[in-house]
Amino acid sequence: MNMMLDELLTIKGLKVYFYTRDGVIPAVDDVSFHIKKGETLGLVGESGCGKSVTSLSILQLLPQPPGRIESGEILFCGEDLLKKNKKEIKGIRGNRISMIFQEVMNSLNPVLTIGRQLTEVIEVHQELNREQATKKAVEILNIVGIPRPKNVMTTYPHQLSGGMRQRVMIAMALLCKPELLIADEPTTALDVTIQAQVIELMKGIKEMLGTSILFISHDLALVSEMAERIIVMYAGNIIEEAETTELFSTPMHPYTKGLLSSIPTLTGERGKLNIIKGSVPRPTDFPDGCRFHPRCEMQIKCCLDKTPPLVKIGKNRMVRCWLYS
Amino acid sequence: MLYYAIRRILLIIPVLCIMALITFFITFVLPGDPVRLILGDFATEDQIQELEQKLGYNKPIYVQFINWSNNIVRGDLGDSLFLRMPVTKAIIERAEPTFFLALGGILIGIIVGIPLGIIAAIRHRTWVDQVSITISLIGITIPNFFLALLLILIFGVWLRVLPVAGYKPVSEVGFGVIRYLILPCVSIGLMQSGSIARMTRSAMLDVLQQDYIRTARAKGLAEKTVIARHALKNAFIPVATVIGFSLAMLLGGTWIAETVFAIPGTGQLAITSIMRRDFPVIQGSMIFVAIVYLIVNLVVDISYAYLNPRIKYS
Amino acid sequence: MKRRKRNKILSTYILVGSVLVIISVFIGLFAPVLTQQSPTKMFPQNRLQPPSQEHLLGTDEFGRDVASRIFYGMRNSLQVSVLVVLITTVIGLLVGLIAGFYPKTDMVISRVLDAMMSFPEIIIAISLAALWGSGMVNIVLSMSFAYFSRMARVVRASTIAVKEVEFIDSGRAAGASDGYILFKYILPNILSPIIVQATMVFASAIIVEATLSFLGVGIKPPEPSLGGLLSDGRNFLPVAPWLVIAPGVAIVIVALGFNLQGDGLRDLLDPRLDE
User: What digits encode the pLDDT tens for the residues A262-285?
Assistant: First the structure.
């Protein structure tokens, strides 16, 4: 067992395929990474690269008819989550591992009060009665910075603003003091100012509770504010992994370089906004060889027909590119 | 919420007016002279004139309409041409069986239809789903008079367990009234359950796709709780509206069921009056149906607003 | 894989539905050829015979062959229903297009449509048919009157939905007249819900016609009609159940065929996104 003792979550060789009318889609194609205790790991990539599917697989929240976890292990504190039965997984959801989603209007149930949606989490995982559960819920609403929490307990989601609703989601996720929080694009649907507030909140939570966070986003700049380490995904594969500072100072994979250079800056020279030419390939027709090569400005001959492996370059540094192997 | 309720109630008035207009003119744009019908073929001109005068049929149409509307608002639907009693009285006397029939019908529709729809949605894309869809479809397609006759055949003729016709009021037999009501209610109710099942299934399927269901599962709730607490409450909202709408079919169904099972309700009264050209009763029955339908829809709409927190608290 | 299964199931609906419809139409069209027996000739000595070699579905109380009566009855039902569907579609289109396209007129039209929907359609149909007298023309008219509001609503809703799309505005900007827009732009795009609704109206029409005939206000005897057969056979239920079962099943078959088609078409043309 070469598992490090401070690794909380280890994903090994995860493959998730979708079986659709148009063919088999390899949404997640052999992905491996780990998250340490207390660490925040950023998972970055464009839409469709497989980051959401990866995160949903952890708690087995994937719609399993079209989707199927083909192979792999997801070790949480040494136990393989993929081998657990429904009951065990439900015991973990919302309890030891929590997940929050992009706040679209419908992430909270419109016909139940905020209070009810909070107390039910406590009731299902802890042995408290309704009164005690309500107290706890009010406490957590306070912690996430919701004003007049007792009133909010009896309101309905549509009566709150987007930012408030996301805070409630975070509160719901933290009720049982989870060891891992999976945040899938938590701020994408929010205004920029609210976004900043929510990020601050999450940083505060991290400090206070020591929760590990898997922060998923397409926004590299945003992720860099929270994460100590970042993984970049493209077309179902991990193509680079590095500590945040290193990734920004010395990006290795051409795609990462492209992402970094396309971040608009307030300072610096004015010029054209850099873009990565081309677009993400459709999963049904991935190119041969390196999946990124058609858009890569630095492609060499072997990129065209051989898929590069993920190689370790330094301590905590991995890259999947023929330029480095 | 109150504002919504008041607005809804006020909206009824123009609708009611249009319906009154339609009802009135339907019976007027018709062949068939009621006066001659009453007096028979051998009436003399004088007798005809006299009766026309008495019934007010010789006044211009718009005057008749105004008089008629005035009377209706006061609850006076005129007098039956054949029954020798005010229409209102005739209808009220026969309201009890119709009421029970409708109630029984909708209850059966709900009790059978809603669980069927829920199960179909939960077991989407399995054989259970397919079977329920097919059953609902057949339920909707069978004409209720055919179903009624089949039920009479099975339970009245072959098994001989239930009466096939007739009715005794509650005041006479108390709970025994159910014996007379079972077959007719089932014949109406089965059709209702088909359409209610379809709507429930469709609403549940919609709801189960929503984000908040995924959130509920991510919290570790048992699937039963997710369905019962999170999904159903949301699905009920469109289902409530469909129940209100299927009431229309229900009312039509009672007319037919009463005829087949010889139950002396408002429906049977209406149909017999239509055959006999008893115009005041025809008009009265149609107004009655319209009012009942509007009121029930009003109640359903308001409950819908009550069930849906987005409207209740806005 | 499950996706393909679902499509197979859908097309099963349409397939089965179409088969039933084709059978019914075939019977209706070729009734005189299919059965040598006359539907109206009476042979009192043969009355109330159960199904046999000679009379596939038995005979009724006047000794008439039930099978041929059913065939001719289906023919009459189909004739009535076709006419009803045609009329309701045409009127529904006109009313619906205008209501959808001109919001001011829509306010009035919608109120009237609402009021009409306040009456159970079948009650309207029964009342009108009875008051106007039986006979094919009257039945068709009364049923059309009762059902056109359904089609009008569907047309109106679809028109409103399509109207919002930009290419309408570009057509306007290019100088197209209202009528042109209505017929060349909007109409082709709302065809699918109309077709679905038309099949549903067809199915309803079959059942309503049967109901009217059952009550005695539909097709006039001795012209055979499915509902009329049920009404006649009712009196002999204990002794000759086939008189009731056979026509009833016939009604169900025809109506089911159209309903299946309508359902299948609707699911096909408006797929539920389950990706």
Answer: 777 666 666 666 777 777 777 777
- Kindly provide the b/e burial profile for residues C95-134, where b requires at least 16 CB atoms within 10 angstroms of the residue's own CB: bbbbbbbeeeebeebeebbbbbbbbbbbbbbbbbbbbbeb
CA dist., res. A238 & res. C55, Å (int): 77
Helix (H, G, I), strand (E, B) or coil at B294: helix
Which chain B residues are within 8 Å of C153, Cβ to Cβ? Answer: none
A98/B218 Cβ within 8 A: yes
Q: Which residues of C touch A65 (CB under 8 A)?
A: 2
Q: Where is B113: in which H helix or E strand?
A: helix B95-122
Question: For residue C239, what is the nearest residue in chain B, using CA coordinates?
Answer: B157
- Chain C residue with the nearest C-alpha to that of B206: C272
**If contacts are CB pairs under 8 Å, which of residues 3-62 in chain C contact chain A?**
3-4, 7
The predicted model scores a pTM of 0.80
* Residue-range domain boundaries for chain C: 2-31+65-274
Q: How far does B128 lie from chain A, in Å, by closest CA?
A: 16
User: Could you tell me which chain C residue has the CA closest to the CA of B130?
Assistant: C9
pLDDT bucket at A1, cuts 50 / 70 / 90 = very low
- Among A17, A18, A20, A282, pick the best mutation site for testing chain C contact (most C Cβ within 10 A): A20
Q: What is the token pair recorded at C221?
A: 């005897």
∠B265-B268-B273 over CA atoms, to 5°?
125
Whether C272 contacts chain A with CB within 8 A: no
Q: Which residue of B has its CA nearest to A65?
A: B125
The residue written with tokens 């480095």 in the block is A324
Find tokens 């491996």 and name the residue: A32
Q: Is the pLDDT of residue A43 over 90?
A: yes
Checking if the pLDDT of A214 tops 90, the result is yes
The answer to whether the CB atoms of A92 and B307 lie below 8 A apart is no
Q: Token match 């858009």: residue?
A: A295
Exposed/middle/buried for residue B47 (C-beta within 10 Å: 0-12, 13-18, 19+) = middle
Hey, which residues 37-66 in chain A have their CB within 8 Å of chain C? 65-66
| Inter-chain CB proximity A156 and B307 less than 8 Å | no
Query: Nearest-CA neighbor of A308 among A240, A216, A232, A207?
Result: A240
Kindly determine whether residue B141 and residue C112, on different chains, have CB atoms separated by under 8 Å.
Answer: no
- For the segment A3-29, the average pLDDT, to the nearest whole number, is 83
- The torsion angles phi and psi of A70, rounded to 5 degrees, stand at -75, -45
Taking only the tens place, the pLDDT of each residue in B127-146 is: 888 888 888 888 888 888 89
Best mutation target among B146, B188, B283 (most C Cβ atoms within 10 Å) is B146
Minimum distance, in Å, between the CA of residue B86 and any CA atom of chain A: 49
Token pair of C143, please? Answer: 């049923």
- Contact between B292 and B284 under an 8 Å Cβ cutoff? The reply is no
The ipTM value here is 0.83
Any idea which architecture C2-31+65-274 has in CATH?
Orthogonal Bundle (1.10)
Do residues C273 and C26 make contact, with C-beta atoms less than 8 angstroms apart?
no
What gap in Å lies between CA A64 and CA A56, rounded to an integer?
Answer: 11
Closest CA to C223 of C57, C47, C64, C15: C64
**Confidence bin at B162 (pLDDT 50/70/90):** confident
The pair of three-digit structure tokens given for residue C218, joined into one six-digit string: 């539909």
Structure tokens at A249: 């100072």
- Nearest chain B residue (CA) to A105: B211
Please give the C-alpha separations between residue C69 and each of B141, B169, C65, C130, C222, in angstroms, as whole numbers: 22, 40, 6, 24, 10
What is the DSSP code string of A77-96? TTEEGGGS-HHHHHHHBTTT
